[in-house]
Amino acid sequence: MMNDTTAELVLTADGRIKNIGFVEDLVNAAPIINDWQFTALKPAIADMSIRMADYEFSKDNISFYYNEDANYPDEIDVVIVNNDLTEENKDAVTNGTFIFLDNLIGELNFATTIDHITVIGKDKAQKELIPIEKLKDFLVWREKEFIEKYDGLWHSTETNNHSILEGTLQNGNPLLAVINMDLLKWENKACHPWILVIEIKFNADANGFPNNKTLAQLNELEDELLEGLKDSDGYLNVGRETAEGIREIYFACKDFRKPPKVAEQLITKYEDKFNMTFDIYKDKYWQSFNRFLGS
After folding, report:
1. In angstroms, rounded to a whole number, what is the distance separating the alpha carbons of residues 12 and 26?
2. Is residue 170 located within the same domain as residue 279?
3. Nearest of 280, 236, 288 to residue 18 by alpha carbon
4. How many domains does the chain have?
5. What's the rounded Cα separation, in Å, for the pair 9 and 272?
6. pLDDT in tens, 29-66
7. Range of the domain at 222
8. Which of 87, 213, 218, 220 has its CA 20 to 30 A from that of 76?
9. Same domain, 62 and 130
10. In a domain, 36, yes or no
11. Cα angle 90-96-102, degrees, rounded to a multiple of 5
12. In this structure, is residue 113 part of a structural domain?
């Protein structure tokens, strides 16, 4: 209950980035019903505590500090210190700590603002501990710095050079990738921190590649994807990789809400031709593409 007269229904994405935009849209489309409040994603609850598996999770036994890396200055690397964590209860206490944080700072913040998070016991701490109730303010400060640094930056891919990379799998079949190498050398990668990977399974020939008809359909799908996710709007096509009856298409994105919607529309449109799935995750420095640079 929000109060004595209004009940609240909270719809959650369960921390899945790809579902956040759909949950928000669902709540925005909800009808107005007297004495009911529909809320998208779990809100932040100040001064909260929970009890799970005989352990207490609160500001009294949880604190944090953060790490900095000169090579990746924009990454937010947070170490959560739980005084009760030991090697024996590590899984249970770590899980409970994540649930506590999800509620303390809110589902959206917990799912989207932290790049790396580790939970350790107090005996493993290497820096001065910060009260956990200051975590939200810390994340707001870092996000404000990030926006001020990168706001308004974008990259046109029209004149970029693409490289064709060829490889051979262990079974002898070929692998072919077409990658925007100019884009991978861009110094402002962090302003497009969300990586969209669309996987398309197709009927392949003996080498794992599409025939002419299937290739035309794949190209048509990719053209529609590029129309829906334009570089001028903050969605950069990094390239694609084809092998073993699977094509993966990669985008680096400024936000995480629109790409899943575009992907879902194409999955529905082409469901009679291809088996398609997608994922979107945070990778500010595009380290998941290092394999194309040979590093």
Report:
1. 11
2. yes
3. 280
4. 2
5. 36
6. 999 999 999 999 999 998 899 999 899 999 999 999 99
7. 162-292
8. 87
9. yes
10. no
11. 135
12. yes
